[in-house]
Amino acid sequence: LAWVFSLPFPGVLFSIEVTAVYFAVRNYWRGFFAAVIGALIFRLLSVWFAEEETLTALFRTEFVVDFPFDPQELLVFFLIGVFCGFSGAFWVWLHRRYVIWMRNSKRLSAFLQKNRFLYPGLVALFISGITSPLALGQFMASDQTNHDQLTTMFGNFTWTSSDLNSQQSAAVRHWDTAGSRIFLNLTIYVIATGLLSILASTLPVPSGIFIPVFKMGAAFGRMVGEGMALWFPHGVTLGDHINPIQPGGYSVVGAAAFAGAVTHTVSVSVIVFELTGQITHILPVMIGVLVSNAIAQVLQPSIYDSIIQIKKLPFLPDIVSSKSGK
Question: Where is it located (predicted)?
Answer without folding.
Answer: Membrane
